[in-house]
Amino acid sequence: MKEFDLESLSTFDGKNGRPCFIAHGDKVIDVSASKLWKTGTHMKRHQAGTDLTSDISAAPHGTEVLDKYPQVGVLKKKAAEKYLPDSLEMLMERVPFLRRHPHPMIVHFPMVFSIVPLFFYLLFILTGMQAFETTAFHCLGADILFIPPSIATGFLTWWVNYQAKPMKPVRIKIYFSFILLAVAIIAFLWRILSPEAFALGGKEAIIYLMLLLSMAVIVSVIGFYGGGLTFPHEKK
Questions:
Q1: Residue of 24, 86, 35 lying closest to 58 (CA atoms)
Q2: 213 near 187, Cβ under 8 Å?
Q3: What is the rounded distance in angstroms from the CA atom of residue 25 to the CA atom of residue 73?
Q4: For the residues of 130-164, what is the DSSP string, one character each?
Q5: Which end of the chain, N or C, is less packed with Cβ atoms under 10 Å?
Q6: Which one, of 215, 216, 217, 198, lies nearest residue 207 by Cα?
Q7: What is the pLDDT of residues 70-110, one digit of tens each?
């Protein structure tokens, strides 16, 4: 049976009429007949011509779906360079969830709490109801609590899944995450020290509103680049 390495496998990416091969374990499988792989990608995330062993182990389906398609070769893998401590590698094998999912799970909280203070504060301006302003303040505090663990799990995911290699999307996410945390802390402390200024409106309220607006913009940038890592943008 034909032998493939990662370089030769990459030429079967399912694009421009080329066959669509994927690897799982030491098997190279031809999934060209699958409608789910007709563009060379599956679920806008998994790319043909690559080793998908770890991706399939974390997929909602089992490996039995691959039995429908023919094996066309075997994958020769180079000895993997160890970059994780043995204890952490063992933990990842016992709890596969820790390899990919902590960051995507936790990051949803600061994404929400970075956006909703703006909308609650706008409702306060429109209605004059103090409860909306208080809710915006509470959400801002929750945001500060969730940003640090999101950053920490982001570094972990970068280390475990990408070997902490320099990557433009990750670099942007890191910079903007710390900027987001700084803006959130400034707005939160300012609101604590001068609560009456925001309740009465005026210049302070406008600046506070701009801080909340900037948080929504910053977290949207972070989410855009994070989403691009999970669901790569297809180049036409």
A1: 24
A2: no
A3: 11
A4: HHHHHHHHHHHHHHHHHHHHHHHHHHHHHHHHHTT
A5: C
A6: 198
A7: 988 888 876 555 666 666 667 666 666 666 678 888 999 99
* CATH superfamily of the 3-75 domain: Cytochrome b5-like heme/steroid binding domain (3.10.120.10)
Q: 3-class DSSP state for residue 60?
A: coil
| CA dist 120 → 64, 116, 131, 201, 212 (Å) | 48, 6, 9, 15, 10
Rounded to 5°, angle at Cα 23 from 29 and 2:
60
Residue among 59, 64, 54, 66 nearest 43 (CA): 59
All structural domains of the chain with their residue ranges: 3-75, 86-230
Cα 190–191–194 angle (5° rounding)? 80
Question: Would you state the structure tokens that stand for residue 156, as one six-digit string?
Answer: 């972990």
Judge contact between 185 and 192, C-beta under 8 A. no
